[in-house]
Amino acid sequence: MSYITEKLKKVKDDRGTMANLRCSLVESKKHRAWPSLYRIGIDVDDEVGAFVAGLFAMDPDDTMIAGSRVCFGRTCKTLERRRGESAGDDAKLTPTEKRFQAILVAERGPELHTRVLRLARMAQREGIAIDFDELEYDLRNWNDQIRNKWASAFWSHAAVGETEEAAS
Questions:
Q1: R_g (Cα) of the chain, nearest Å
Q2: What is the pLDDT of residues 6-64, one digit of tens each?
Q3: Smallest Cα–Cα separation from 146: which of 99, 114, 107?
Q4: How far apart are CA 50 and CA 46, in angstroms?
Q5: Quick check: 45 and 58 in contact, CB under 8 A?
Q6: Rounded to whole angstroms, how far apart are CA atoms 108 and 84?
């Protein structure tokens, strides 16, 4: 478990802290998150740490998979299946595939965070857990290797079978 995740789990029942941490996801409200970030040991200028803390704070009870090492690409595939989307024979991309492709071409930083946020919110609304340790690592080290890892997890025949089992 990462340092950030460990700290977040300790304060997950503090509704005020969680509300403040969610502010880190909104540019005009980030300043409200700074005291809470400081108290849990995340530097104010740690964009990835603040982003992950904000995502965690959106739904601290149902969003954590401790130690499972689930790639965000697989989380997105589970979301696609749960939403009942499927790529037909006409080769059109599903809405989730389009959003996922936008993530894969995003540059590190605000652009990437904005695109991940959209799918993370959708996943959380569907009750799909997010592995924040893995997500934090991947966002900190965003490069072609991680893009390929996410793409492989999303467009893997093995992942399709796993997500279908999880969805039923």
A1: 16
A2: 889 899 999 999 999 999 999 999 999 999 999 999 999 999 999 999 999 998 765 55
A3: 107
A4: 6
A5: no
A6: 30
| DSSP assignment of 29-57 | GHHHHHHHHHHTT--TT-HHHHHHHHHHH
> Rounded to an integer, what distance in angstroms lies between the CA atom of residue 127 and that of residue 62?
7
- The answer to whether residues 62 and 127 touch, using CB atoms and an 8 Å cutoff, is yes
Residue reference for tokens 């924040």 = 132
- Give the number of other Cβ atoms within 10 Å of residue 106's Cβ: 17
* Token code pair at residue 121: 């919110």
How far is the CA of 29 from the CAs of 23, 44, 57, 148, 158, in angstroms? 5, 13, 15, 33, 41
